[in-house]
Write a structure and sequence with these properties.
Low-confidence stretches: none
Mean pLDDT: 88
Largest sheet: 6 strands, mixed
Distance between the termini: 75 Å
Structural class: alpha/beta
CATH topology of the largest domain: Rossmann fold
Amino acid sequence: MTDGVREAMDVTLRGCDELIPQGDWAKKLSRSEATGAPLRIKLGLDPTAPDIHIGHTVVLNKMRQLQDLGHQVIFLIGDFTSLIGDPSGRNNTRPPLTPEQIKANAETYYRQASLVLDPERTEIRYNSEWSEPLGAAGMIQLAAKYTVARMMERNDFHDRFHANTPISVHEFLYPLMQGYDSVALKSDLELGGTDQKFNLLMGRHLQTEYGQEPQCILTMPLLEGLDGVDKMSKSKNNYIGITEPANTMFAKVLSISDELMWRWYTLLSFESLSAIEKLKVSVSEGRNPKEVKVALAKEITARFHNAAAADAAEQDFINRSKGGVPDELPEVALTGAPMGIGALLKAAGLAASSSEGNRLIDGGGVRVDSVVISDKGLKLEAGVYVVQVGKRKFARVSLA
């Protein structure tokens, strides 16, 4: 193994859960180095939602690392497989999306992924290119290459079957179609989350069935969200969207625990492992972990915005932590003066209800023009007020 191949293996293995089979990937890397032919590295994402969060970027970061080694990365948008619905991790049948929903979501996916990948060196494909022309006859031939017994070994299907939970026949088609993507693209390596292992292995099986050299598979961990418990998910509201404002993104990264910070460094930072280890040593020797977390927050914010926005977000956070007011505030125009403070908080979108607003006042978390409000019966006359709830929520309210 040459130094170049050894370096490529180190890059590949950083933060990964499994590389299967590791020896075959080393052989592919050696062949690529000897011939100068880049390897084809595939990542498929179904456009099931309009936005990508930073949990999705764990695999995108790995793609970028391999892209920077000179290999050809393929960003595959599963516009056809989205019509089926991925059964991975599901305890019931996933409602399929409409073609209109898929089209709308797909339009944003590649633009957002390009914040991580180099768009000039990325091949973008849609699996409808080869899935739709396959037709009924081709689908039957494809389905004949895998057995029901093997399909039922999959945990999702096995558990649902024994729980008498319905399994639709079309769900069996999903792993077959994802595997066929690897055949169509002649993939050397496919990436995915740990929940995608069955689908990724299907690609290896089908490539062998079609006379191709089987791809290797690389699974990456599912990133824990802001709570440090559940995987990052919009439904759990523990996510950071990659198109969120810089100030919000920066503050959310700073909100994670010191323990979770190190996992995020490994999976999200572009710092070398040796550099991260030095940071760990510095913290163990007494450095404030918040300083290290600030560096991570600035790196992530700069990646999806720019360095100036990251610097401004840091200063904004400092101002807020000192009770200062940000330079830019949402403008809210209300009528109905005089208005009770609880009703105003609800109308301005700073509290879900008037009763929640009153609870926030009881907790000392509401300020008007930098003055802490303690009177829940306060009525505000017509005028312009800077209203603050907690450390992050602000609005400039014009009340008439």
